[in-house]
Automatic annotation (TrEMBL):
Transmembrane segments: none
Domain HTH myb-type: 9-61, 62-116
Location(s) in or outside the cell: Nucleus
Residues in coiled coil: none
Keywords assigned: DNA-binding, Nucleus, Repeat, Transcription, Transcription regulation
Name of one Pfam family that matches: Myb_DNA-binding
GO molecular function: transcription cis-regulatory region binding
Taxonomic source organism: Eruca vesicaria subsp. sativa
Protein name: Uncharacterized protein
SUPFAM superfamilies membership: Homeodomain-like (SSF46689)
Domain of life of the organism encoding this protein: Eukaryota
Length: 334
DNA sequence: AACAGTCTCAACCGCCTCGAG
DNA sequence: TCTCGAGGCGGTTGAGACTGT
């Protein structure tokens, strides 16, 4: 017994939405609010199925959606979260204010995945491609960590990171076929390790990010317009402002051309901490690094969950800040 | 200019989850 | 407890844009 498909109906239109249809949908939702998607097409005078209306609204028309090119910080947060959670686009989207899961998914599939491959990193496992046999997957361990990090980065098999290594773009053999292009404004990516350091530097602003994007809504589903508070945050807020970037660049010697990929060390530390039951960050690899309990995944409206996420973010950033010397010093750097 | 190959991303599809009755 | 429908989610598709020859 199979369920009747949602979008079965005579004369229902498919394909690209027209401006006129958009106007009708926006107008209806502005007046009546979101919800009751099944009834919206008829009430709004649209020959679309409710699901199509919902997708069009949530992925494209919703006023708070941020469109346009992803910043390098957004890119790297995606990479990091993908490493932690896999293709959980909706979970990743919750950590990227004003981005939709669909947009993130598309961006991953068309840009980031290729770039990781180009760098010799398996986009599924986030391990070096062919790590068991690839001699380039090992580098001088003494160069990897300036603190008391172990010189070996091997992990137990169960961790899924048994052969994690530090690699640089210069280390990576050309991808088979070698024609992965970076089109349309794609910048050379920086490494996840730099991401972690950058995010750590910014992590103290995460509360601001979250609070700035905690919007109140009118009954019609649109953000409350209040010049004094959250609406300013909505329209003006840029979680990756140039001033922040400037600070980060100043402290991390940001260099797009010489990248490491030492996220693995971070994960290794998590693994060790978990085994040792160290209190300050008790999460396992495979759990959300920001939201340690899957059952507590963030609801965008839950204060408790948000606090929980902030707490995890702080733990995470503290870890990174405590290991500020993690940045891999590439032997190829000048 | 024309064509073919490639890329991008909006939109669709089908399954899953959750809550109401 | 079960059924059903709404909404959510991740994978996939295909039209149009872009690029190379």
């Amino acid at each position: 017994m199979s369920r009747k498909p949602c979008c079965v109906g005579e004369g229902l239109k498919k394909g690209a939405w027209t401006t006129e249809e958009d106007k009708k949908l926006i107008s209806y939702i502005y007046e009546h609010g979101e919800g009751g998607w099944r009834d919206i097409p008829q009430k709004a005078g649209l020959k679309r199925c409710g699901k199509s209306c919902r997708l069009r609204w949530t992925n494209y028309l919703k006023p708070e959606i941020k469109r346009g090119e992803f910043s390098s910080e957004e890119e790297q947060i995606i990479i990091m979260l993908h490493a932690a959670r896999g293709n959980k686009w909706s979970v990743i989207a919750r950590h990227l204010p004003r981005r939709t899961d669909n947009e993130i998914k598309n961006y991953w599939n068309t840009h980031l995945k290729k770039r990781l491959i180009e760098q010799g990193i398996d986009p599924v496992t986030h391990k070096p491609l062919g790590s068991n046999t690839n001699p380039t997957a090992t580098t001088q361990p003494e160069k990897l960590h300036s603190l008391d990090a172990p010189t070996s980065t091997s992990l137990p098999l169960s961790s899924g990171f048994n052969t994690v290594s530090k690699i640089t773009r210069n280390d990576v053999a050309p991808v088979h076929g070698g024609s992965l292009s970076c089109k349309k404004g794609i910048k050379k990516s920086s490494s996840t390790s730099r991401l972690l350091n950058k995010v750590a530097a910014k992590a103290t602003s995460i509360k601001d990010i979250l609070s700035a994007t905690t919007l109140s809504y009118e009954p019609n589903g649109f953000p409350t317009r209040n010049e004094e508070d959250s609406s300013n945050a909505l329209t003006d807020f840029d979680p990756f402002s140039q001033s922040l970037l400037h600070e980060v660049h100043a402290t991390s010697d940001f260099d797009m051309d010489h990248d490491g990929y030492d996220f693995s060390y971070f994960l290794e530390k998590l693994e060790r901490d978990d085994h040792n039951k160290e209190p300050y960050m008790n999460v396992e690899y495979g759990h959300d690094l920001l939201i340690s309990d899957v059952s507590q995944e963030v609801s965008s409206t839950s204060v408790d969950d948000q606090d929980n996420m902030i707490g995890n973010f702080e733990d995470w950033s503290n870890y990174l800040l405590d290991h500020g010397g993690l940045i891999y010093e590439s032997p190829y750097q000048n």
